[in-house]
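Take one protein record:
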Amino acid sequence: MIIKPIKATTDAGKAILAGLYNRFQLADPKCQEIVADILDNVQRRGDEAVLEYSRKFDSPEMTLAAMKASQAEMDAAYGLVDDEILGSIRLAKERIFAFHEREKEDSWMMTRKDGTITGRMVQPVASAGLYVPGGQGGKTPLVSSVLMNGIPAVIAGVKKMVMVTPPSADGSVNPALLVAAQEVGISEVYKIGSAWAIAALAFGTESVPRVDVIVGPGNQFVAEAKRQIMGRVRIDMIAGPSEVLIIADANATPAHCAADMLAQAEHDPQALAILLTTSAEVAEGTVRELERQLPLLSREDIARKSLVDRGVIVVCESVDECIGFANDIAIEHLELMVAEPFLRLGQIEHAGAIFLGDYSPEACGDYVAGPNHVLPTMGTARISSALGVETFLKKASIIAYSKEAFMADAEHIQRLANLEGLSAHARSVAVRLGKE
């Protein structure tokens, strides 16, 4: 049996659920050390180091001149992409634009009767770097990553966007990625990947410009590099393996539950697929469907390992209990395959994205629904949100006092400053009162 369903009330069930509550983890010490060395090397040696890593791990014949995708490559890409694929890219682009337009923020000001004006000025960051994974050596171009990461930056008003992606062994980039980049408005694409690409974006090299925000998914080396440069630049999040949690009642369709678990499991052997159900029959039917559907997958080995090593099916007493467990787990993708799912929406406290009903599989959100698919993992949905326009915005406070307002607040400012032992703060007020 690929996954053995277990009751939530048993000791084993309680232990499994407890492990899910505390699944946040950083890269292992060896990975952290390797990444630290890469970052240091790129910071010191720039292009020379980036080229060495690219030749060693991706494209043996890569040159500095070829590291940036040429305009000829960008132009030629459209002729190499099927019209139907282009149509789907444009549909997804339209949906994602429409959704994220609602996230725009305006600057604002408020006034007091004494003439004080305070407010907040909202501005985009000057530049952003988008990391796009290679996708099996370029064979499976992750165009959705280009759209999901690039479109919010465009809407925010970021003027300079740079994309990095690992090249194929022959030094090329899949034309679908180049098309997706241009559809978003990105004209600067560098053929570099892994931690050295993150380093190049964070520090800048002779060829690759330094950026203010770095977004995009990647393997453990990419995630660790983003963690280590966080603070020097902004990042979207520290992402772990992809996750789904399905809550299913007795009316759920086991074939659908299994299909959606497999959709996560095929990402990575470390992906996490969970089913919480009130029905032992749905649990057992889902296991049978997993076994039936697995041989149909192009990534059967990956999905099977993920399910065997990390897959979870728990039988609970009620939907309310399932939701309680789900809130504690704080999953990336939460699917509600229950009767009247909208009535349950208000009970959900922590999830990256919520999919309601039998015909809202997580795959809709990955591609064309509109909301962003860059979501918090490893339980960080308790504190984090999906990538959005705000990821590319910064906010400055505005403060303007009239003389009347200053005079009215002067005593309070001095009193608080002196209480904190900051006499210069108090004097900066006193001199304006003519007392110094």
User: Anything to note?
Assistant: DSSP finds 17 helices and 14 strands in the chain. The first helix runs from residue 11 to 21. The radius of gyration is 26 Å. The mean pLDDT is 96.
